[in-house]
Amino acid sequence: MINIQKFLKSVPFAWEGIITLFKSENNAKIHLLAVVVVVISGFLIGFSEAEWLAIILTMSGVLALEAVNTAIEALVDLASPAFHPLAKKAKDVAAGAVLLFVFGALVVAGIILWNHFSYIISSIL
Ligand SMILES: Nc1ncnc2c1ncn2[C@@H]1O[C@H](COP(=O)(O)OP(=O)(O)OP(=O)(O)O)[C@@H](O)[C@H]1O
Predict the structure, then answer these.
(1) What's the complex ipTM?
(2) Is 77 annotated for ligand binding?
(3) In a domain, 96, yes or no
(4) Which Gene3D superfamilies has this protein been placed in (predicted)?
């Protein structure tokens, strides 16, 4: 049986997690700034519907992975405050997951921006 009340009760906690992420994590602030810049560029350049879909999916993916990485960091710090090779592995691999997705997001944004700028340049020349 689906419990809607339980779901609705969990939403404020999830929102609290999002606020904590952007208040405490420097990388999350940088990613949020990048999202704001891309969204403003999108309105100025005039992204197509398909481009917005790709951008929204990749940007939300980066932010969501950053949130998972922050949660893993907190758990590792709780479980292993002292140095441990497995703690290092967990933190480094979680950070690597964010980096992998950021590379993908940069390629997506690069292709979209290149298409628009090459069109603008070719229409000027
Ligand atoms: N308990 C630990 N045991 C082993 N290595 C650790 C441990 N804590 C951190 N490290 C290593 O140091 C690196 C940096 O960790 P640190 O905690 O300073 O920053 P972070 O976890 O990346 O998070 P933050 O965003 O808060 O800076 C990790 O990626 C990992 O390689």
Answers:
(1) 0.91
(2) no
(3) no
(4) Diacylglycerol kinase (DAGK) domain (1.10.3830.10)
